[in-house]
Amino acid sequence: MSEEIERSLKLFKALSHPTRLKILAMCLDKELSSKEIRRSLNISKPLLISHIKKLVDAELLECRVEFDREKSIVRKYYKTKENLTIDLTDLLRKIKTKQI
Amino acid sequence: MSEEIERSLKLFKALSHPTRLKILAMCLDKELSSKEIRRSLNISKPLLISHIKKLVDAELLECRVEFDREKSIVRKYYKTKENLTIDLTDLLRKIKTKQI
DNA sequence: TATTTGGGTAAAATTTTATTTACCCATTAT
DNA sequence: ATAATGGGTAAATAAAATTTTACCCAAATA
User: Fold this and answer.
1) How far is residue A99 from each of residues A16, A53, B17, B31, B69, measured CA to CA in Å?
2) How many folded domains does chain A comprise?
3) Domain residues for A61?
């Protein structure tokens, strides 16, 4: 299967879970730490990390890493990418004409 | 969970399978019977029927039913809906502002 | 010092999806 | 008459995704 189909499938799968849609909605306008996200969602740490991984992997969520020199720890902030539109007909036409 | 979120999830789940993307691509320009679809995909009948159900349920694929009076049988033809675009940012903003 | 908190991993358990198998019926072809 | 074809359902099985559990570490706090 082509790269582009795999990318599209990853995108659609990432969007196929209510919690992940909520995470994207939360991080629309300002970046949030996983702690802040978790407070709103009330889910376990491993579960949140797993959801976040899928969103970042699908290029829906951006991760900014900050290094706190004082405390020698890394802090991660998440923000939803902007202008997310999917032209489905275009994707399907590419699949049909074997462009991808 | 709201109706609209459930509808969106159904849409994304329907799009999360390579075979279903192929079916949509095939039925872009002309309607096809399940027989014609199956010939191209080489999958079992029950499996195709299951995929088609999900696509129709997600309102991605339209089904036209024809009744052949001579032979007393129904024939079904499938065609992908047109102008399928998903405004993800808009959906997420609705979720955020609890409009849905 | 013992415990809580933030952030994380690995693996087991659970749930959901996908796929196959075994059927059904009616029509057409051998 | 028998086999093949189109179209379908129900249930069992296989595979994939989700969620929990049990851990790890370092820093802050009671």
Assistant:
1) 26, 29, 19, 22, 42
2) 1
3) 3-96
